[in-house]
Amino acid sequence: MTRKTTVFTADCGRDAGKQFLLTEMPADAAEWWAIRAGRALAVAGVELPTDWENAGMAQMAILGLAALANLPELTLRALLDEMFACVKFKPANSKIPPQDLIEGEGSQIEEVKTRWQLRQALYYLHTGFSPAVDTPTSE
Q1: What are the phi and psi torsion angles at 112 (to 5°)?
Q2: Are 79 and 32 members of one domain?
Q3: Looking at residue 41, what DSSP letter applies?
Q4: How many Cβ atoms from other residues are within 10 Å of residue 16's Cβ?
């Protein structure tokens, strides 16, 4: 069986109409990501439910993205960067295959809101739960 994918269409500012292909992490990578996030949260003093380490991404859905804000900057950056490895930019020309994201100057993402919406869409793709009240736009 193939990993889940979804196409996210940005809806704000300079990114409006841009599309991104989101691909689910393999199960072992998603499990390890969730364990590292949970351990980091525990070290940061966030109270975790009993047996959190056995729940993986599902437990992360319950804790929510907001809990990650309690992490030290370097730890948080590593987890967020790993999350964005699941995102590719889809050029408007359908003959061009999806491309890895470019960070910094020349980035395909020009709005901070788009980055947050992509993270929410990735979170939903992996867990089936939305950490936000309003679900990001996607196909």
Answers
A1: -60, -40
A2: yes
A3: H
A4: 12
